[in-house]
Amino acid sequence: MKRTIILSAMLVAAMSTATLAEGNGDKSSKAALIPSQVEGRYNLIYADATPGIVKVKILDEAGHVLRVDRIDNKRGFKRPYNMKDLGPGTYQIVVSDKDGEFTLMARVQELEEMGVNQLGGSKYQLVYKDPKSHGATIGIFDQTGELVHSESITFNKGFSKVFDLSGISSKGFTFEVSSSNSSKRVSM
Questions:
Q1: pLDDT class for 106, splitting at 50, 70, 90?
Q2: Partner of 41 for a Cys bridge, out of 5, 36, 128, 141, CB 3.0 to 4.6 A?
Q3: How far apart are CA 66 and CA 186, in angstroms?
């Protein structure tokens, strides 16, 4: 019971930063794919406490099956996936259980220093690598160049952070990361 409550709480907390399943309301609330702080890694959180077999398939952009996991679900689970080894691209994570199947999406970019992924709707994932810095300032600008968000962040070699920009009306955004070593910008 305690594990079910914890997994459910993790799912609720993760919904603001997760790529949620596509599908009907019941299925989409069962699982979330959460980007990790480590580039190319995701955590699949499955919050259904009903015991049974859950099948997880990873497919590439062409629809080829790259990996299949059969998980004996007892009370929900959290499963890490390292997508970086698969190379740059968009991958489907198809989760099948007794109620049917639903799809989550993961995008892996080849990243040298900085990248931005649009996770869906108005959510954006900023990924930054700098082995020489341990802190930076993040600025997000709208299409007119007006600063709409700013914050400082501390990290070790890099970070990944998801921003929900749904409250900001703009046709595009520019993300800027300034550290003691450099300043980088990416526009979406």
A1: confident
A2: 36
A3: 31
